């Protein structure tokens, strides 16, 4: 039995990817990316792969520098999830000026608003709700920060929704999310934010912006939205807990401290509904 | 813990204060440490070598609301933790 191996460089980060016995993989992964380009490499020119995707029957396997052994996935969307996480991690480690944060982010009123991850607080759904109201999505999962400039970088990876969409959001938001859903399974849907349109709602990989605000989310069923000033050391601790990257810890702490002390930091308590969006927009507009 | 020993910061540790807390980095192991307000106060004292009994007396004045026995025990534990983390060292008189 023969295997068919393809080798690619995912640019602009020159991340080497090998795809084995899965000839259509890039066809359904590339629509989930904005600004990334692919170049096919000859086996003789290919560097050792940072990520390898292989398929045996209905089962996909994923290997990377980070994964010990390999991970097994059943279904396109699941291997896409695993692959995109590894791609984002590889991007984060591709430049030693970057520190990656587990966070979502949207561009609202021309300001980048960061939602650091802290448990299941609905950052992906809130990101999608913001997009429904016209905010560009920077990321719903990982955002690298350049420790030299303090700017956040977009990774150009489509946001992924957990399904079913909760009843707490408005019917209009839910309908928009359903319509924007691309690669979908019973449990997840990637949003297709018109990455080929001139005014895509998904910021392309490499786009850099200074932070405008940091907002920690607290999602509590049935809560009316409330926004209050956050403790800066608490936000700093959260960011330190949720980071990875190759930049030295001293530079990372200095840059995070600079970011946390130079932009407004808030706590947003909300119940998941669209009413939080108006409060969020008003708050960001007032900055 | 000897009452005759003095404690002092290791010079290689970098410090980033924020409000009444502080973040420390040990660049040799890329370790990051967070100090709460009492820990920060203790760290500030250790800019100069201090004995444990001097630290306890000064922090008892700075945090009068903290029960003294608890505060003294916490300071002993905290100094041990800082030694273990290689953020401070002891010096003999």
Summarize the structure.
The complex is a heterodimer of chains A (287) and B (93). Chain A is an alpha+beta fold.
Task: Tell me about this structure.
Chain A has 287 residues and is of the alpha+beta class. Chain A has 2 domains: 5-93, no CATH class; 98-285, 3-Layer(aba) Sandwich (Rossmann fold). Chain A is 27% helix and 34% strand. Chain A has 7 helices and 19 strands. In chain A, the strands form 4 sheets. In chain A, strands 7, 8, 9, 10, 16, 17, 18 and 19 form an 8-stranded mixed beta sheet that branches. Chain A has a 6-stranded mixed beta sheet with strand order 3-1-2-4-5-6, with helices on one face. In chain A, strands 12-14-13 form a 3-stranded antiparallel beta sheet. In chain A, β5 and β6 form a beta hairpin. In chain A, α5 runs antiparallel to α6. The longest helix of chain A is centred in the N-terminal third of the chain and has 18 residues, at 76-93. The mean pLDDT of chain A is 92. In chain B, α2 (52-62) crosses α3 (68-84). Chain B has a 3-stranded antiparallel beta sheet with strand order 5-1-6. In chain B, strands 2-3-4 form a 3-stranded antiparallel beta sheet. The longest helix of chain B is centred in the last third of the chain and has 17 residues, at 68-84. The two termini of chain B are 14 Å apart. Chain B contains 3 helices and 6 strands; from the N terminus they run ββββαβααβ. In chain B, a hairpin with a 2-residue loop joins β2 and β3 (21-26). Chain B has a single domain, classed as Outer Surface Protein A, domain 3. By secondary structure, chain B is of the alpha+beta class. Chain A binds chain B through residues 231-233, 236-237, 240, 248-250, 253-254, 257, 260-261, and chain B through 14, 16, 18-21, 23, 25, 27, 30-32, 34.
């Amino acid at each position: 039995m023969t295997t068919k191996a393809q080798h690619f460089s995912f640019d602009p980060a020159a991340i080497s990817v090998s795809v084995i016995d899965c000839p259509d993989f890039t066809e359904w992964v590339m629509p989930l990316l904005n600004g990334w380009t692919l170049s096919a490499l000859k086996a003789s020119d290919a560097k050792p792969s940072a990520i390898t995707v292989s398929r045996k029957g209905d089962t996909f396997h994923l290997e990377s520098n980070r994964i010990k052994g390999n991970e097994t996935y059943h279904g396109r969307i699941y291997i896409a999830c695993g692959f995109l996480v590894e791609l984002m991690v590889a991007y984060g480690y591709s430049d030693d000026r970057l520190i990656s944060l587990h966070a979502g982010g949207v561009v609202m009123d021309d300001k980048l608003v960061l939602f650091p991850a802290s448990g299941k607080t609905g950052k992906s759904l809130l990101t999608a709700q913001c997009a429904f109201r016209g905010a560009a999505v920077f990321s719903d999962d990982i955002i690298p920060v350049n420790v030299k400039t303090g700017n956040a970088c977009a990774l150009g990876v489509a946001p992924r929704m957990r399904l079913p969409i909760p009843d707490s959001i408005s019917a209009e938001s839910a309908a928009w999310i359903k319509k924007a859903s691309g690669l979908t399974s019973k449990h997840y849907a990637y949003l297709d934010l018109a990455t080929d349109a001139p005014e895509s709602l998904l910021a392309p990989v490499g786009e850099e912006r200074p932070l405008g605000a940091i907002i920690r989310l607290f999602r509590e069923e049935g809560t009316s939205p409330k926004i209050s000033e956050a403790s800066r050391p608490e936000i700093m601790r959260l960011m330190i807990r949720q980071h990875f990257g190759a930049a030295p810890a001293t530079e990372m702490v200095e840059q995070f401290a600079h970011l946390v002390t130079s932009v407004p930091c808030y706590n947003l308590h909300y119940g998941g509904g669209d009413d939080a969006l108006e409060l969020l927009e008003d708050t960001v507009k007032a900055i | 813990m000897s009452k005759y020993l003095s404690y002092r910061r290791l010079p290689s540790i970098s410090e980033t204060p924020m409000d009444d807390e502080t973040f420390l980095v040990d660049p040799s192991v890329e370790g990051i440490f967070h100090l709460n307000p009492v820990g920060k106060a203790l760290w500030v004292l250790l800019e100069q070598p201090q004995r444990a009994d001097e630290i306890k007396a000064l922090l008892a004045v700075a945090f009068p609301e903290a029960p003294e026995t608890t505060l003294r025990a916490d300071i002993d534990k905290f100094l041990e933790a800082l030694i273990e983390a290689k953020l401070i060292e002891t010096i003999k008189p």
